[in-house]
Amino acid sequence: MTLPFSAERVSRAVLLAHPAGHSLSPAMHDAAFEALGLDGRYEAWDVPSAGLAGALDGIRSSSVLLGANVSVPHKEAVVALLDELTPAARRLGAVNTIVRRGRTLLGDNTDAYGFAAAMAELERPPGPGRALVLGAGGAARAAVAALLAVGSSVLVYNRDPARAAALVADWQCEGELGVVDAVGLRDAALRADWLVNATTVGMQGGPPGSPLPAGMLPAAGAVMDLVYRPRPTPLLAAARAAGLPIQDGVAMLVHQGAAAFLAWTGHQPPLEVMRAAVEGALAAGEPSPPSLPS
Ligand code: NAP
């Protein structure tokens, strides 16, 4: 295949996504390469599903590509196309990071790590306690995995209850994990030490509003929203007004990216440089995400 970049001897990492133009990862990783004085560059490749296998072949046969990030819609589909998986990727059934070792492509998943690191950054982190996770997609799986790992008991609520039930069925034996329905939602939210929005609701270009009805918040728990555009999200604005500790998706984005950077380069990632690059790009309002179907 022809690689979509000019053939310079610069180490590169790429994003495989469709669409890819709205990603903050190029700004974040380019800032990291520059801060460490590394001759590296990060490029967003817009790869539709039909081109995924070809893009991976291109990475395998390249001598300059360190690896890749993988995002929507390829995180699960890419699993079957890789040579090896880390335990984290196998557990989540999804890959967000690929590391090239010679012609071998190793699939990893740094999202649960990123979520756990974001939890730890909160100024007043509650203990593991009870968690309510909204959503049952890939981000919700990463959050649930991280919460179970620290010993939280976790309830999952999703618009499509069958998807929540499938998530719970996969990991039920690994900790206290269950589904909550619309009737039990208010009580679960009120009692939550951790409330996590892992849906696309409230995301710029996504379904508008808050993922929970007005007034439905923890009595005293922390509220995390994996969405990072707009800032604050409607859920976090309500939580902040209620005096609750909040965390948006930037911290998780930066930490999952830092773990990928370490895996590609072997260099300790300059976390605050990466965070500042993301904050700067968000403040500049670019690049904007496309509209999502609700
Ligand atoms: P996904 O697999 O497509 O899952 C989307 C989730 O949103 C599903 O639970 C879906 O419910 C729910 N949803 C969509 N529209 C809805 C609506 N109108 N009402 C209620 N629920 C709705 O997506 P994902 O990869 O998990 O990503 C979820 C969010 O996390 C996105 O906003 C993404 O940007 C963010 N994220 C952030 C990071 C980070 O580093 N900060 C990392 C990964 C993802 P159904 O199952 O019922 O459709």
Explain this structure to me?
The chain has 294 residues and is an alpha/beta fold. It has two domains: 12-110 and 256-283, 3-Layer(aba) Sandwich (Rossmann fold), CATH 3.40.50.10860; 123-244, Rossmann fold, CATH 3.40.50.720. It is built from ten helices and twelve strands. The strands form two sheets. A six-stranded mixed sheet has the order 2-1-3-5-6-4, sandwiched between helices. It has a six-stranded parallel sheet with strand order 9-8-7-10-11-12, sandwiched between helices. α1 (25-35) crosses α10. The longest helix is centred in the last third of the chain and has 17 residues, at 249-265.
Mean of residue pLDDT values: 94
Report the β-strand fraction as a percent range. Answer: 15-25%
Strand tally is: 12
**Rg (CA only):** 19 Å
Q: Tell me the overall shape.
A: globular
User: Which structural category fits the helices and strands?
Assistant: alpha/beta
Assign the CATH architecture of the largest domain: 3-Layer(aba) Sandwich
Q: Strand order within the widest sheet? A: 2-1-3-5-6-4
CATH topology grouping of the largest domain: Rossmann fold
User: In total, how many domains does the architecture comprise?
Assistant: 2
Distance between the termini: 35 Å
What hetero molecules are in the model? NADP nicotinamide-adenine-dinucleotide phosphate
Main beta sheet: strand number and arrangement?
A: 6 strands, mixed
Query: How do the helices and strands follow one another from N- to C-terminus?
Result: EHEHEEHEEHEHEHEHEEHEHH
Share of residues in helices: 25-40%
